[in-house]
Design goal:
4-stranded antiparallel β-sheet, about 90 residues, about 30% strand, YaeB-like fold
Amino acid sequence: MAVRNFRHKSPHEPFVNGRSAKIGSQYRNQALLILDRPAAATELADLEGVRKFHALRGDRAGRYAMWVSGNYRITFGWEAGHAVDVDFEDYH
């Protein structure tokens, strides 16, 4: 399994090169650890119980979230065993 694509540069930069001007240093390390989880998963069940993993509802149905800190989450879709449209956001 791999992360297929990112919605924005903010989660892409630390995933690829370990740093980002878009994600503050207080969140970067947690975000990197979290990004490794969907990249290593072969199915959504592999993520159960990790960093408050949960499916989103309503107009965000079909997307999933993992807790970074406070209101910040790594969110992503899931298609054919791949995390897609990965993002770092505060959707609250």
